[in-house]
Amino acid sequence: MKQYIHTVPNFSDGRRTEVIEAVVGEFRNKKGVKLVGYFPDPDFNRTVIEAIGEPEPLQKALLKMTKKSVELINMEEQTGSHPRIGAQDTIPIFPLKDISLDECIDLAEIIGEQVYKQIGIPVYFSGENARNPKRKSLDYIRKGQYEALKLVANTPERAPDLGPAALHPTAGAVIVSAGTRPLVAYNVILGTNNLEIAKSIAKIVRGPSGGFSTVRAVGLKFTERDQVAVSMNMFDYEQTPISRTYELVKMEAGRYGVPVVGSELIGTLPQEALVLAAEYFLQLENFNREQIIDNHLVELNRD
User: Fold this and answer.
1) Sorting pLDDT into bands at 50, 70 and 90, what band is 298?
2) Domain check: are 171 and 227 in the same one?
């Protein structure tokens, strides 16, 4: 049976159409790879790519993507509201079908080695590939972002896992990781332009500062909308459902007299994540998955 992997790499440009299309183009028309979508954000100055594929062709596409990002993005000139340390900021992979987490961990190691050996970009391993517990957190690796990290990357505590104890002079570094399941990228939008409120709420939500252990969150500003958001990466939608984070953000915003005006998903998410949210908000009793007609169609197609 063919194996399939899910990946959601992020690169540090969400404004220049020609750059975005060139980087994303490395996933187009590649046998064994499907580009699910891509999501540029001019305020974040960051683009999320979502793709699925077989291990070998997907690995090649990720490497070509990284080369293109390094070629076209100069971190000495890049600015944006989203935390970042490199032109090709992250390369996370997740098991999707007929492949184990251990195999994804091994593949992430190979990708990291290729990025360093072939492109010359230092690599930090995170997630299941982290060399120590602190580096499981993107927040810890990105502390101070590119500008501060390049000053302390020569210290043992902050040095890359692969490469010299320094960042690339224009491309920074890349974070490579394998995870147990795809993360859910979820933003809750507030009816205010006060960034400090969003940052305060994000601190309450995220795990390292006392919130949900499986959630990382930052406060971000949407300049074009004149609003702010609590932007979350959710690494376990079953342990911490979307509904729970939404309700906490809403409750904390109420302390400041600020309403929640909407929310948005970045990229795809598993059906189960929405089912759990529906169960909560609809207060469904005795609900089971066989009540979803689409699940019966899936079983019929298998037969």
Assistant:
1) low
2) no
Q: Specify the number of domains making up the chain.
A: 2
Q: Are residues 46 and 169 in the same domain?
A: yes
d(CA 267, CA 35): 11
Provide the annotated active-site residues.
Answer: 82
DSSP 206-228: BGGGTSBTTEEEEEEEETTTTEE
Residues recorded for the chain: 303
pLDDT tens string 147-159: 999 999 999 999 9
Amino acid making up residue 71: E
Instruction: Give the H/E segment covering residue 234.
Output: strand 227-234
Angle, helices 242-255 vs 195-205, to 10°: value is 130
> Long-range contact list for 52-57, CB < 8 A, 24+ apart?
52/4, 52/5, 52/6, 52/7, 52/96, 53/4, 53/5, 53/7, 54/2, 54/3, 54/4, 54/5, 55/3, 55/5, 55/99, 55/103, 55/107, 56/32, 57/30, 57/31, 57/32, 57/33
Q: Is the pTM of this model over 0.90?
A: no
Q: What digits encode the pLDDT tens for the residues 119-151? A: 999 999 999 999 999 999 888 999 999 999 999
